[in-house]
Amino acid sequence: MDNEKLVELVTAEVMRRLGSAQGEKPLQTAAPLYTALAIFTGGSIGLETSLEELKALQAIGTKLTVVLSQAAETIVGENWIKEKLGSDIPIITSQSPYPGKYLRAADIVLVPVLTQNTAAKLAHTLSDTMACTLIIQALMLGKPVLAAANAADPQDGWRVQKEMTKTPPALREALQNNLKKIAAFGIELTPVDSLAAAAKKALRKETNSDLPVILDKPAKKQVLDAEAVRRAAQSGTGIVKIEQGTLVTPLARDIARESHIDIVYN
After folding, report:
1. CATH number for 198
2. Domain that holds residue 95
3. CA 254 → CA 101, 216, 258, distances in Å?
4. 92, 94, 170, 262: which has the fewest C-beta neighbours closer than 10 Å?
């Protein structure tokens, strides 16, 4: 985990504790800013990093629902998901009813570990698994779909470390062409350690977060508190405008920084 992501996670925990100490509702208990469907296929390359990336998204108020393919049920498992992402996180398995309502409610669909097998199925528009069906239907619904492509990339650094670089040229080209095809379908491929950053960018674009929220000028001296910033974040804005002389509480500044909201004076 790099320093920026570590700071993000530590900041979220500090905010939670400060909110409890000051009698405010912790950020995690507020209404979620975003909802995401995270579909795990059966790969292990980049798996631990992907879980840290999802925690970083939770830290900015993203409610996650996890889908496990049959292979992921064995490789990842429900217990590990709950240990890393929270015991109350909804988990869909191959035995669960089709999670259509979660797909429709999601602001974004994430594939934290895209395997070569899943990439090949998607490249040929095969919907013979729940994971592939959800991904294809997400594209048909116009939802942003992001996939960490490390496990599907024949030239990924992990494979180089494991001396798996003797792939025949024709096979390497076929695997790379699968990735090119699904990228052309609209799946945004990203390195696993950039998954959270790419998701934040996509969510901001999806929610038009550059639109400012302008606070009305009050008769008395105005205070911008943590709750006001939370409401602004939940509306999907990226800017809060306040009048000169407005007092901004320290916790409000922390939440604004964590939610990537700019506080500007008129």
Report:
1. 3.40.50.1950
2. 31-206
3. 34, 22, 6
4. 170
